[in-house]
Design a protein that fits this description.
- Helix content is 65%, strand content 12%.
- α1 (16-40) packs antiparallel against α2.
- It has a two-stranded antiparallel ribbon.
- The protein is elongated.
- It has two helices and two strands.
- The two termini are 26 Å apart.
- By secondary structure, the chain is mainly alpha-helical.
- The protein has helices spanning 16-40, 45-70; strands at residues 2-6, 9-12.
Length: 78
């Protein structure tokens, strides 16, 4: 669910369980895809390392954003 609440803001609705599962899934998928990206560069090891690192940063950003959303649920507020 996405709702425009005005003044340049939107409100999103996500289920806690879906966020938790997505975070876990991304954490598991990240190293697998990094290995594939690295291997996909063949003999160009340097480029493979750079691409895998860049992909990792994107995954980290997505995981961090989801973790921030998760912190809004009462179970995660201490």
């Amino acid at each position: 669910m996405i709702e425009n609440i005005g003044q340049g803001f939107v409100k999103i609705g996500v289920k806690q369980e879906e966020l938790e599962e997505s975070i876990t899934g991304l954490q598991q998928l990240k190293p697998i895809l990094q290995k594939q990206v690295f291997a996909g560069n063949g003999r160009n090891v340097r480029q493979g390392e750079e691409d895998a690192k860049e992909l990792g940063k994107h995954f980290d950003t997505a995981i961090e954003a989801m973790t921030i959303l998760l912190s809004g649920f009462p179970e995660y507020q201490n």
